[in-house]
Amino acid sequence: METKDEEVAAFISRIFNEIVSSPLNLALLGAIGYVAYKIVATQMEERKVKPEEPPLPKLRKQDMTMEQLKQYNGTGPEGRVLVAVNGKVFDVTKGKRFYGPGGPYAAFAGRDASRGLATFSVAASEEFDDLSDLTPVQKESVKEWETQFTEKYEYIGRLLRPGELSRNYSDGETEGESSEEEDVSRPKAE
Ligand code: HEM
């Protein structure tokens, strides 16, 4: 009687013999090896070609008009990208592969993405959008996106409606000191 180990060894050796005894199988094995090598080599090459960009210095806290926001669409000298969601401006530069020039969501760069996010449309208006005609479900979706952006990206300030004045942020102000207008979307402890 063969033991379990012997059975497994015999099975593997049979497969091995099967492969090496047929030139066609050998050729296929070679082709698979070559493709696998190419994939790994290409990935390593890409990593070498595109080193991680060092992060930009933090932008000072400030409220912005649509006009000001528009300057930060990733094509400026710094390449900084800002996106507004639910009246708040976020620095999404670290998500440049999404929002930067040529990225899948580049249409949101330097714009208010709220309506697009709520309606599954990668498009944004140049005009200020008060979002008042969104359905309750869409408004909820905008708030969820805002929470997601708050967790991932740096908050810069509020998006100003036409004629609205900027708040004065003192230089040393840190997150939380100006929070009275924030956190409408975040549920309290769950
Ligand atoms: C076929 C449709 C879509 C597919 C397959 C898709 C796929 C994805 C994937 C895989 C990610 C995560 C990428 C990562 O974290 O590495 C992502 C992120 C995202 N998607 Fe989509 N997406 C689709 C449509 C949309 C649409 C219609 C919108 C908005 C209108 C949208 C907005 C976003 C945003 C804002 C992010 C987050 C990027 C970030 O973390 O800042 N996507 N998508």
Automatic annotation (TrEMBL):
The chain crosses the membrane at residues 20-40. InterPro entries: Cyt_B5-like_heme/steroid-bd, Cyt_B5-like_heme/steroid_sf, MAPR/NEUFC/NENF-like. Residues 64-160 form the Cytochrome b5 heme-binding domain. Residues 164-190 are annotated as: Disordered. Gene3D superfamilies: Cytochrome b5-like heme/steroid binding domain. Keywords: Membrane, Transmembrane, Transmembrane helix. Residues 172-183 have a biased composition (Acidic residues). This is Cytochrome b5 heme-binding domain-containing protein. It comes from Daphnia sinensis.
